[in-house]
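Annex B. Sample input.
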Amino acid sequence: MPQDGLGSKSGGKKRSGGVPRVRSHTDAELQYYRDQDHDNLLPPPFRARLQDLFIQIEKEFEALYAENFALQDKIDGLTERLERESVIGERPGGNDENDGASTKGLKSKSGGQSSQKVKAANKLRVQTSKIVSSFKNDTVSCRMVREYVGHRDGVWDVAVSRVGTPVIATASADQTACVWGIDGGRNLLQYTGHCGSVNSVKFHPTQDLILTASGDHTAHVWQAAITPDQLQLNMQNQKQDYLIVQRVHSSEDEVDGSDREDEDDGGMMCVRGDGGGAATLRTPLKELTGHTSVVIAADWLPGGDQAITAAWDRTANLYDTLTGELLSQLIGHDQELTHCCSHPTQRLVVTASKDTTFRLWDFREPIHSVSVFQGHTESVTSVSFTREDKVVSGSDDRSVKVWDVKNMRSPLATIRLDSPVNRLAVSPTNVIAIPHDNRHVRLYDLTGNRLARLPRSNRQCHRRMVCSVAWGEDSLGARCNLFTAGFDRVVYGWSIHSFKEGKD
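Annex B, continued. Sample output.
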């Protein structure tokens, strides 16, 4: 998760199950081990520890294999029994009255037991179908189109412009926020007004303004006007880069420096630039103060006249963005806040915390109300509204849950995953993009059905955890409609379309 002003990992997530650190050895000790064993340079304690870990892994895999084998036998047995009973039940009766009477007697004696067995088998089939569905072919086409490279440290957040300009913004631990042309892939504007890690970035809903949250305990509102001339120049630079790459490859020379070309699965050329030549902005329009610790996230309320911030001081603040005045301080979480999000059309806000809860704040009345929801067992890392009055929450407990705002006693759907969840996003067509610590990004619908996993290869994947994702509007006309930001300092632009759309 995003960090403090130095961008350190000290305040981040705790990792369990890792290999314990081994103390460093002196040169004399290393020479001794070399003399003792010329074939293996690893120190004996470290080598023994590795062997023990490999043995434990092997035992766990053997136990898992045995468990799966036993489960498969149980499923096969129940399925075979169900088929036999269905055959008996559907067998036509003979003309002989005695045969009919004996069949009735058989049904009357075993009717209760067989019905219970059928119900158990059907229940097991439903549970098994959910597991098998996770191995079905993807129903969505995913292609990596572009890379956005230029940050000097991990990228915590990414956002897409809402006012029709084809640009994205990124927030990084290198204490800067950048605005990029979607199609050109170049850095158009760099904001350097923060003196701490920039943990969050959001575009104003109707104006060329950006809201950023930082480890310096503040949030900034700053101007991000991108002219058509800048976008045009961005596209021209992209074409020049493409021609340069083509000439270099035709001469079989190695492409080095900041401009290099990759090819994705769809054969689309992907130019990667260094973000050079970007304009620099250092002064914000408004500085929002009042927190006493790291501001981890911020978002605009509908209309853009107010903003909400979430911080590690366990509070969320509501500001007037025109004057910078602190309007209200939301108190109630027991531990640090991790995220906040506002409803796209209503004055509703959700805040997430390490205390395993998220809260729904209602500002539609003069006296606001709050509801507390306990649906996770570990830190809630992300919350997001959908356009259908639903809330999607992600957690370090490796689950994503979908809730109805009008009835949030229990989730509508629960998605079980294999890695902690970072800042997720919901598309206009209700597709959930889920970024993970294990470098994967998965796509699900609101009912919990798996749609796809973004492809991974040596040239098209994040090499460290994926921190955030953001969906773009199809109306922008850009070839990318999903963006993923990772701690490997790279942002990828993806083209995501369902196979049904491709047929249409």
